[in-house]
Every structure is written in C-alpha cells, then in structure tokens.
Design a protein that fits this description.
145 residues; alpha+beta; Pnp Oxidase, Chain A; eight-stranded antiparallel beta sheet; 8 strands; 36% helix; globular
Length: 145
C-alpha cells in the first residue's frame, strides 16, 4: 500500500487489536476502539485498572493491527512508542459514537460512567501493510472461468 492508502485504511472504521509485551509470557493482544487521522497518532482509551494499561505504561510501546475480515483482505499494523494520559471525555464520546452510533453510544457511555479511563496515544514509527485486492480479483476471475 502507498502511504496515502495505508493511512486512509487505518482511518477507516475497524476494530483494532493492540499488542503489548509481557515479561516471560506471550504478548497481550486485545481489541480496542481507536481513532486515527492521517499523519497523526492513534488514540484509544482503556479502563485505568486494566492489565492492558499496566503493561502499556511499563513497556512504553505497542503495536496495533487492523484488517478487513472479508475479501479483498487487507491489513495495516503500526508500531511505536505510546504515552498514557488522563481520561478524555471527548475521545471517549467520539469513540462510542464512531463504533455504536450516537444513540447507542450515549447509552454505552452512561453504562461505563463509573469506570476510570486512561487515554493511550500511539505514535506510528513503523508500518506493515498488505493488500490482497489484486489477488482477490485474479481468484474471482479464475473461479468464473
């Protein structure tokens, strides 16, 4: 993928999977709602008491993978340093609305209002991408033949 293609793909609506190192164990991989604007950082939030936040604070770096789960398959993985900050109501609201829509998003926000949150900012320093669009077209053409 070109830089523009990968950034547009990452900015599209996907559930991401964040991966962070764990001492003496396999890395922790967990789904996250996120926000990204081309050229910027990836933002997501997590429960302040979660293992995810503790590991992110300890490691200071993470990776995020997003994908299409139907043909044509594509994925983008970004890796880089992270900074954990204080809760951000605007980010939490924008994520709930992005993934659930305004009405259900607001209901969700009320349901988690007593959960302390932290914001994570991942700065992409390494990108890995794959786009199987051309392969999918060839496979479909061969199947029709």
């Amino acid at each position: 993928m070109s830089r523009s293609e990968r950034e547009t793909f990452l900015a599209d609506l996907h559930v991401g999977v964040i991966t962070v190192a764990r001492d003496g164990q396999a890395p922790l991989a967990a789904p996250v709602w996120y926000r990204y604007q081309p050229g910027g950082d990836v933002l997501f939030d997590c429960a302040a008491a979660s293992e995810k936040i503790k590991l992110l604070e300890r490691s200071g770096q993470a990776s995020l993978c997003v994908q299409n789960d139907v043909m044509p398959y594509k994925y983008v993985t970004v890796e880089g340093p992270i900074v954990v900050g204080h809760a951000d109501d605007e980010l939490q609201r924008s994520l709930a609305h992005r993934y659930l829509g305004p009405q259900v998003g607001d209901i969700y926000l009320v349901s988690v209002s007593d959960t302390a949150r932290r914001v994570v900012r991942l700065t992409p320093t390494r990108w890995r991408t794959t786009d199987y669009t051309a392969l999918a077209a060839r496979l479909m053409a061969a199947a029709r033949a």
